[in-house]
Amino acid sequence: MQEASYFSRQGEKIYCELCPQECRLQEGQMGFCGVRRVANGRLWTTNYGLCAALALDPVEKKPLYHFYPGWEILSIGTAGCNLHCSFCQNWQLARNEAGRELQALTPAKLLQILRNQPARGQLGVAYTYNEPTVWYEFVRDAAAVVQENGYRNVLVTNGLIKRQPLAELLPFIQALNVDVKAFREEFYRRHCRGRGFKEVLRTVEQALPACHVELTYLLIPGLNDAPAEIEDFVNWAASLSREIPVHFSRYFPQYRLNLPPTPLATLQRAFETAREKLDYVYVGNIRDAAYSATSCPSCRQLLISRRGYYPQNVGLEGHTCKNCGHTIRLAGHIYGGGKAGH
C-alpha cells in the first residue's frame, strides 16, 4: 500500500477528495472504488504498481482516431473503478470479480517494457481497461517517467475526477478518450451507481485546452438513446468544438444488463444528428467501414479509410486534404510518416 493523494480528516472520518463520489470512510473501510482503504487514520491506495492487464493495442482501439493513427500503444490496467455500471464491458477487471492475480510493476519497469516494443508500438502508454483515475498515484508517477523519456500518455477514462487532481495529472497526458455514459444525472445514479455527471462534462472542458480529447457514447436501447438526449449531447460537444471527434458505440449484452443490442437504425440516426454539428463522427462495434472512415469536413473527400482498427491514408497530405487544402484535426501523423518522438 502507498499513502493516497487527496484526502482529509474530519472528526472520526476520512474524506476522499479524488473523485465526485466523495467517500466518507471510517477506520478499516474501503472506498466505493474498491482500492482505497483507511488504515491508521490515513487513506491508502491498495493497487499502486499492481497491474492486472498489459497488451499492445492499436491506438484506434481506445478509441482514438485522430491521435497518431496506425500506431500501437502499450495498454495497461489494474483493478478498481469509481462507477459500478450494470453494462460494464470490463467488469472482470473493474471489480476483479474473477480474482485475477495482479503483477507488480514500477514506472521504470513499464518504461523498459515500452522500449522493448516494435517500432510501431513505441508511441507510449494508455492507462485503460479499468478506470485509470482510481490508479491515480501510479498513473501520475508512471506518466511523468514515460513523458520524460519522449513517449506519450493516454487516459481512457469515465471522466469522474475532481478538478485539482486532474490539473496535477494533465501536464503528463497527451490524449484522453472520455466515456460519457449518458447526458443526465439520473442515468449515472440509477445505472452506474455514481454521481457527478456535471463533473464528467467539466473534465472534458478542463482537458480540451491541455491535450487531445475524443468522446465515446455507448448507445443503450431505451436507456440513453432518446433523440432529445443525443441532441443535447451533440449540442454540448459542438459548443466546445465542432472538431472534437465523437464515437457512438453499439451496445451488446454484458455483465448485469441483458437488453438486446442497439438497433442499427438508432446508430444511424445518432450519426446523422451529430454530423450536422460535428466534423468527425464515428460508429463503433459494427461492420461498416463507412462509419469508421474520416472524410474532409469541407469537401467530403475520403481522407482515411479503416479496416477494423487499421487506417490507410487515401487523401491526406500531412494534416491537410489533398483535394481542397482543408486542415483536419489530427494529433501526430499516420504510422509510416516518421518517428513519434518529440
Number of helices: 8
- The CATH architecture name of the largest domain reads Alpha-Beta Barrel
How many distinct domains? 2
- Overall shape: it is globular
- How do the SSEs run, as a string of H and E? EEEEEEEEEHEHEHEHEHHEHEHEEEEEE
Tell me the helix content: 10-25%
Helix/strand-derived class? Answer: alpha/beta
**Number of E-state strands:** 21
| Straight-line distance between termini | 35 Å
Can you offer a commentary on this structure?
- By secondary structure, the protein is of the alpha/beta class.
- It folds into 2 domains: 2-45, no CATH class; 53-293, TIM Barrel, CATH 3.20.20.70.
- It is built from 8 helices and 21 strands.
- It has helices at 91-94, 107-115, 136-148, 163-169, 185-191, 197-207, 227-240, 264-275, and strands spanning 2-3, 7-10, 13-16, 24-25, 36-39, 42-45, 50-51, 53-58, 72-77, 103-104, 124-127, 152-157, 175-179, 212-219, 246-250, 281-284, 294-295, 302-307, 310-313, 316-317, 320-321.
- The strands form 6 sheets. It has an 8-stranded mixed sheet with strand order 8-9-11-12-13-14-15-16.
- Strand 15 (246-250), helix 8 (264-275) and strand 16 form a beta-alpha-beta unit.
- The protein is globular, with a radius of gyration of 20 Å.
- The two termini are 35 Å apart.
- The model has no long low-confidence stretch (mean pLDDT 94).
